């Protein structure tokens, strides 16, 4: 079903001309070009001198959090969603807050640690070996148990509904899916992009035409400082799903990134890119690579507690320590490493297991998801995550509606027709596997 994009249309995760100067305007009307997977055309890697354009084109009311207590705390402490604008309340964490997410830095030394079962040397998307005993965090058997996705109710009636859904999706021809994507591409800019275009903030954007809407951007601190990141809420039936879609950090935005994670009480980061792909920097390493050496920032200290390399993604557990207070926050970092330089994964199986494991790991705060630009692969992740949750709860879903909701909150989510088709392929594979069990 999936088409093939040319190298010229695949370089930002998978941007076009790095030599083009920064422009005042934000995203322009799409012309069928790719954004998130087309970064391979970049010639200059000094993003402070030249800012490329992106390479790919660029929600029931029950909260979907695995820990109800923590999720309610996040909602009241950090954000209230309205129809257009978001209101944010920031406060300094107190020692009485959630024992599950905050603790003193002194607790770090006594924790168990994982090591990789992989013997590859350090490098891009690698972690320096600590020489500590290997402790497996998750086994392939456990990952396999995350698929197929099992609905809460799997009786004759629900199976019939799923069969009908499968038939409807199978009837969609490739040109039907492409027509849907082209219709999505006609969506105009729905809000202002003033913050991202301010002179003070331009160097904080990895790509000059991927900017957050002013109404949904994630503000930092009491002064609501800028980061290229967007709050995204997707509604499907009785469920709401909260995410932060953001670009891959650059050297000058690493501190901002960790501030965002801590202020929003996020416990999971999903990274869907390698640091370098096809010789092009997609994302700068923003974490420590050794258990012995923390990453020292101006306001934060990032410690690597545990790590494991699986066949298709890397698990890292970090502790973020706020230097001014000594308070810390635990974050699980899950980096998918099998997305090819061009196009989409040849097999959906690895990505399905990865998405499922990210969802299983989620406890509190919005899920932080990023690739390079924070729209292409990030959009695919958000879409299929919502669909998987819908299947589990016996809800119907509409892929085009989900993507429409995303694009209303961050411009260009799911950048290419290949990525859009990949969403359909993943869902078809999941439904076919599920019905095969019956």
- What is the C-alpha radius of gyration, as a whole number of Å? 21 Å
How widely separated are the two ends? Answer: 25 Å
**Which runs of at least 5 residues are low in confidence (pLDDT < 50)?**
1-11, 13-50, 55-124, 127-134
Q: The biggest beta sheet, please?
A: 10 strands, mixed
Number of helical stretches of at least 4 residues: 10
Structural class: alpha/beta
SSE topology string: EHEEEHHHHEEHEEEEEEEHEHHH
Oligomer: single chain
Q: Give the % helix.
A: 25-40%
As a percent range, the share of strand residues is 15-25%
Identify the CATH homologous superfamily.
Answer: Protein tyrosine phosphatase superfamily
Rough shape? globular
At CATH level 2, the architecture is: Alpha-Beta Complex
If you consult CATH, what is the topology? Protein-Tyrosine Phosphatase, Chain A
What is the mean predicted local confidence, pLDDT?
Answer: 78
Number of domains: 1
């Amino acid at each position: 079903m999936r088409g093939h994009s040319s190298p010229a249309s695949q370089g930002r995760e998978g941007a076009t001309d790095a030599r083009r100067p920064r422009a005042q305007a934000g995203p322009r009307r799409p012309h069928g070009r790719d954004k998130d997977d087309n970064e391979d055309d970049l010639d200059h890697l000094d993003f402070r001198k030249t800012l490329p354009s992106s390479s790919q084109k660029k929600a029931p009311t029950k909260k979907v959090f695995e820990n109800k207590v923590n999720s309610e705390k996040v909602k009241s402490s950090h954000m209230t969603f309205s129809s257009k604008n978001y209101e944010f309340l920031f406060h300094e964490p107190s020692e009485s807050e959630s024992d599950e997410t905050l603790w003193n830095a002194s607790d770090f030394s006594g924790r168990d640690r994982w090591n990789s079962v992989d013997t590859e040397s350090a490098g891009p998307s690698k972690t320096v070996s600590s020489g500590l005993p290997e402790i497996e965090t998750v086994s392939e058997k456990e990952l396999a148990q995350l698929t197929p996705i099992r609905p809460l109710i799997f009786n004759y009636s629900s199976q019939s509904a799923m069969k009908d859904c499968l038939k409807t999706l199978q009837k969609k021809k490739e040109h039907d899916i492409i027509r849907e994507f082209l219709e999505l591409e006609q969506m105009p800019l729905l809000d202002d992009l003033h913050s991202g275009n301010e002179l003070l903030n331009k160097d904080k954007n990895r790509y000059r035409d991927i900017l957050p809407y002013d109404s949904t951007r994630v503000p930092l601190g009491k002064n609501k400082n800028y980061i290229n990141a967007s709050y995204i809420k997707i509604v499907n039936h009785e469920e709401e799903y909260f995410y932060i879609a953001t670009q891959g950090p650059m050297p000058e935005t690493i501190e901002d990134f960790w501030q965002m994670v801590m202020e929003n009480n996020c416990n999971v980061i999903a990274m869907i890119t390698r640091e370098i792909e096809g010789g092009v920097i997609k994302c700068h390493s923003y974490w420590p690579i050794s258990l012995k050496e923390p990453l020292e920032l101006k306001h934060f200290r990032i410690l690597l507690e545990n790590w494991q390399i699986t066949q298709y993604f890397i698990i890292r557990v970090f502790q973020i320590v706020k230097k001014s207070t000594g308070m810390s926050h635990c974050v699980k970092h899950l980096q998918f490493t099998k997305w090819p330089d061009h196009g989409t994964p040849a097999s959906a199986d690895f990505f399905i297991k990865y998405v499922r494991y990210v969802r299983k790991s989620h406890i509190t705060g919005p899920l932080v998801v990023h690739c390079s630009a924070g729209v292409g692969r990030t959009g695919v992740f958000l879409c299929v995550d919502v669909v998987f949750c819908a299947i589990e709860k016996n809800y119907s879903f509409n892929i085009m509606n989900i993507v429409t909701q995303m694009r209303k909150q961050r411009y260009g989510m799911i950048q290419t027709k290949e990525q859009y088709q990949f969403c359909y392929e993943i869902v078809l594979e999941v439904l076919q596997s599920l019905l095969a069990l019956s």
